[in-house]
UniProtKB/TrEMBL annotation:
Originating gene: glnS
Main location: cytoplasm
Gene Ontology terms for molecular function: glutamine-tRNA ligase activity
Glutamyl/glutaminyl-tRNA synthetase class Ib catalytic domain location: 28-337
Domain named Glutamyl/glutaminyl-tRNA synthetase class Ib anti-codon binding: residues: 340-440
Descriptive protein name: Glutamine--tRNA ligase
Motif range ('KMSKS' region): 268-272
Location in or out of the cell: Cytoplasm
Residue window of motif 'HIGH' region: 34-44
Top-level EC class: ligase
Assembly with partners or alone: Monomer.
């Protein structure tokens, strides 16, 4: 079954099915409208999968549109990163990317049309006064003294706004709707404001910029969008969306439908907060592998398939929700369990010396890349007299439950021989420095001949041949499930969200491609860092552990 066939239905797809069956539309056209004021995050991935997924499944189109009406906060760096992230997730937009700023001339003409119809006026109250006059949920608003200006006066003043005759905050254009409406968005909303700011697309052409609510509906209509999908906080704004399109001369009237946004435990998703993490250097940039950004998750080793699968599993509804962090992790774990080649790495090394193994010998052992996928082939792993194992895989004494190496007992080195720990050496602080062992030469790929049972298997790398590597162990960035609700979310950052250790990896990992996932046997899934890993200084990121270690903690 293809991915598209496997995509579950939802209330939006039901609306589309009905619109197509009724002949209201004969094709579907959606859009994904990010504001280029930050990098995309996993919440945007939900919207991307919804909008582009619908276009794919209904053989329709999906536009990429930069909603760029706030020049001060926007930047070309964000435009480029957004394009890259959408492509990486596996989607293609229809035609060239669009920009709301492409429509600034038309938007201006529609504003003039509203003025001519007596449906918009130039306001000269201050922003504070506008707020005061607006009223509240329990009290109606008051009319501005400027509300009843003549059409001619409004046209002249709007022209004065456009040509730089008003300072910022001294004039704006408002729609004339209803100051007593129970929908506050309809209490004469601002349509245009003065901003003397250069724009990344239009330069210094404009010193007035249209507001989101005026821009979005008209951009949708100009692009022939059929279903305009957005998150629930825009529910009330739909009244204004429809009011604008009903009152200007435009043929197309797209319909807006709202769905609930993705909230993920132990994560913040607001771009303002993500921006704060970056600018205050609480993380190492937008693509820090602890960030919920698409570029951060990618750098950490998430695949596009795992992110699309996550979006499929969470579904699309109108219910507010908080998704467990573990459900994102289980998507990447399920994906990598299938396709990641296995490799060996030792993160906290202690040395084994196999005293009855020839000091000069290097044996190339063939080890399967995947335990149940022979088609993934084998690799050669060098075995030598000295090997590193994990410090935690050895005990001087232990009960039967401990299936690793114990003094005087045997264990199997993965893909190699059975060894027996004979004696140990310690430093002055009592730390074990070396474990002296013997090996049974007849146990390569075979059980001990005399029927001795050796249950434990541990991983290892050759001291002479392994490569040193920095391993970055990531944990959740925050210590509380809902950091956004904390008085200061930055106070809840997990100080152990990044721990760097120096370990050793088997030599085949010299060729590891950045972002490509491996399972480090018995530890977890890792990939080479796409920025910092160099041939002579390998750096690996932990994508996710083998099991959900938090599940127990959360339940406790
Ligand atoms: P912020 O409020 O943090 O600035 P935003 O929602 O304004 O974020 P946009 O760039 O305007 O960010 O979002 C582009 C699209 O992605 C919008 O349609 C928006 O509804 C959707 N989107 C943003 N965040 C989420 C989320 N957490 N879950 C689902 N969709 C989202
Ligand atoms: Mg926005």
């Amino acid at each position: 079954m293809s991915e598209a066939e496997a995509r579950p239905s939802n209330f939006i797809r039901q609306i589309i099915d009905k619109d197509l069956a009724d002949g209201k539309h004969n094709s579907v056209h959606t859009r994904f409208p990010p504001e280029p004021n930050g990098y995309l995050h996993i919440g945007h991935a939900k919207s991307i999968c919804l909008n582009f997924g619908i276009a794919q499944d209904y053989q329709g189109q999906c536009n990429l549109r930069f909603d760029d009406t706030n020049p001060e906060k926007e930047d070309l760096e964000y435009v480029e990163s957004i394009k890259q992230d959408v492509k990486w997730l596996g989607f293609e937009w229809s035609g060239e990317p669009h920009y709301s700023s492409d429509y600034f001339d038309k938007l201006y003409e529609y504003a003039v049309e509203l003025i001519n119809k007596g449906l918009a006026y130039v306001e000269e109250l201050s922003p504070e006064q506008i707020r005061e006059y607006r009223g509240s949920l329990t009290e109606p608003g008051k009319h501005s003294p400027y509300r009843d200006r003549s059409v001619e006066e409004n046209l002249a003043l709007f022209e004065k706004m456009r040509t730089g005759g008003f300072a910022e905050g001294t004039a704006c254009l408002r729609a004339k709707i209803d100051m007593a409406s129970s929908f506050i968005v309809l209490r004469d909303p601002v349509l245009y404001r003065v901003r003397f700011a250069d724009h990344h697309q239009t330069g210094d052409k404009w010193c007035i910029y249209p507001m989101y609510d005026f821009t979005h509906c008209i951009s949708d209509a100009l692009e022939g969008i059929t279903h305009s999908l957005c998150t629930l906080e825009f529910q009330d704004n739909r009244r204004l969306y429809d009011w604008v399109l009903d009152n200007i001369s435009i043929d197309c009237h797209p319909r807006q439908y709202e769905f609930s946004r993705l909230n993920l435990e132990y994560t913040v998703m607001s771009k303002r907060k993500l921006n704060q993490l970056v600018t205050e250097k609480l993380v190492n940039g937008w693509d820090d592998p602890r960030m919920p950004t698409i570029s951060g998750l990618r750098r950490r080793g998430f695949t596009p398939e795992s992110m699309r699968e996550f979006c499929k599993r969470i579904g699309v509804t109108k219910q507010d929700n908080m998704i467990e962090y573990g459900s994102l992790e289980s998507c990447i774990r399920d994906d990598l369990n299938e396709r990641a080649p296995r490799a060996m790495a030792v993160l906290d090394p202690v040395k084994i010396v196999i005293e009855n193994y020839d000091a000069d010998k290097v044996e190339m052992l063939n080890i399967h890349n995947h335990p149940n996928k022979p088609e993934m082939g084998d690799r050669e792993v060098p075995f030598t007299r000295e090997v590193w194992i994990e410090r935690d895989d050895f005990r001087e004494e232990a009960n039967k439950k401990y299936k690793r190496l114990v003094l005087g007992k045997e264990v199997r080195l993965r893909g190699a021989y059975v060894i027996k720990a004979e004696r140990i050496e310690k430093d002055e602080q009592g730390n074990i420095t070396t474990i002296y062992c013997t090996y049974d030469a007849d146990t390569l790929g075979a059980n001990p001949a005399d029927g001795r049972k050796v249950k434990g298997v541990i991983h290892w790398v050759s001291v002479a041949k392994a490569l040193p590597a920095e391993i970055r162990l990531y944990e959740r960035l925050f210590t509380v499930p809902n950091p956004g609700a904390a008085a200061n979310f930055a106070d809840t950052i997990n100080p152990e969200s990044l721990v760097k250790v120096q370990g050793f990896v088997e030599p085949s990992l010299a060729e590891a491609k950045p972002e490509f996932g491996y399972q480090f046997e018995r530890i977890g899934y890792f990939c080479a860092d796409n920025k910092d890993s160099k041939a002579d200084a390998l750096v690996f990121n932990r994508t996710v552990g083998l099991r959900d270690t938090w599940a127990k903690i959360d339940a406790a």
